[in-house]
């Protein structure tokens, strides 16, 4: 099984940390070189069963320039070309405009979107359910997976779930 997976999320939600954790578990290559004008390879995860290419998608964040319109369209078409999208969020912060903006972009594509609730080490377990409910009201996610990227908690479950979609 193999496929391309885009990682999206606001700055500082833990995208790089998650990639380091994933690549640390099974390393192939890690690169910051532009792959196409729309996507940038973050890392390739390889096992006997699967090869997953993780891509960074610039332009999914709320644009702060006039170039924004082109960036947004370009990001949408990039997200339509991958097998799955990982939407990372930080559960220790309130659901705000940044996340809502990204969710609006994700509504425009047919690609399955995984909601990855990161930094679960920073909240009490009973705080998770209300967060899941809030996000579920905004979009129909293919899967919702809580993780702690920094500690590696539940990251293998995330990879197994992802592999099933490829
Ligand atoms: P990015 O901007 O989305 O790539 O975010 P980074 O991976 O650079 O992480 C931003 C900050 O959040 C860093 O200080 C990380 O150490 C921290 N961080 C990332 N994942 C976790 C996590 O699971 N738990 C905690 N407590 N901190 C995390
Ligand atoms: Mg980063």
From TrEMBL:
Domain annotation Era-type G: ranges: 1-166
One MF annotation (Gene Ontology) recorded for this entry: GTPase activity
Membrane topology: Peripheral membrane protein
Keywords in alphabetical order: Cell membrane, Cytoplasm, GTP-binding, Membrane, Nucleotide-binding, Ribosome biogenesis, RNA-binding, rRNA-binding
Subcellular location(s) per record: Cytoplasm; Cell membrane
Chain spans, region G4: 118-121
Primary localization: cytoplasm
Amino-acid positions noted as binding GTP in the UniProt annotation, renumbered to this chain: 9-16, 56-60, 118-121
Region (G2): 35-39
Segments for region (G3): 56-59
One cellular-component annotation, GO: plasma membrane
Functional summary from the UniProt entry: An essential GTPase that binds both GDP and GTP, with rapid nucleotide exchange. Plays a role in 16S rRNA processing and 30S ribosomal subunit biogenesis and possibly also in cell cycle regulation and energy metabolism.
Entry's family note: Belongs to the TRAFAC class TrmE-Era-EngA-EngB-Septin-like GTPase superfamily. Era GTPase family.
Name of the protein: GTPase Era
Organism: Cohnella xylanilytica
Organism placement in taxonomy: Bacteria, Bacillati, Bacillota, Bacilli, Bacillales
Stretch of the intact protein here: 6 to 171 of 298
